[in-house]
Amino acid sequence: MGFNAVMVVFLSAIVGSSYSIIIHFRSKHVQWSEKTKNLQQQLFYTLVVQMIVPMVFVCVPCAGIINLPMLGFRLNV
């Protein structure tokens, strides 16, 4: 259960940070040129991809290997 708690804490931090970045992008108080805004959005999307790829290929399989036996599913790893 410790692994699940760590995953929940980190995923909530990631979602919260992403939400605040999106809110900042949509803010009317920030005066960016169109070129700078496009560059920042591209960098944000790159960061999202860099977060999702390891999550899908590393964390999700590890979570499955750890949690599925506790739920009654047998795994032959």
Q: Would you mind describing this structure in some detail?
A:
This is G protein-coupled receptor. It comes from Pristionchus mayeri. The chain crosses the membrane at residues 6-23, 43-66. The chain is mainly alpha-helical and 77 residues long. The chain has helices spanning 2-26, 34-67. Helix 1 (2-26) packs antiparallel against helix 2. It is elongated, with a radius of gyration of 18 Å. The mean pLDDT is 88.
Instruction: Tell the overall outline.
Output: elongated
Helix percent band: over 70%
User: Quick one: how many beta strands?
Assistant: 0
Mean pLDDT: 88
> What class do helices, strands and sheet pairing give?
mainly alpha
Low-confidence stretches: none
The span between the termini is 20 Å
Count of alpha/pi helices: 2
Order of helices and strands: HH
Strand residue percentage:
under 5%
Radius of gyration: 18 Å
For the report, how would you describe the main beta sheet? none
InterPro entries: 7TM_GPCR_serpentine_rcpt_Str
Transmembrane segments: 6-23, 43-66
Protein name: G protein-coupled receptor
Organism: Pristionchus mayeri
Which descriptors would you attach to this protein?
mainly alpha, 0% strand, 77 residues
Give the secondary structure arrangement, pairings included.
Elements: H1 2-26, H2 34-67
Care to give the gist of this entry?
The protein has 77 residues and is mostly helical.
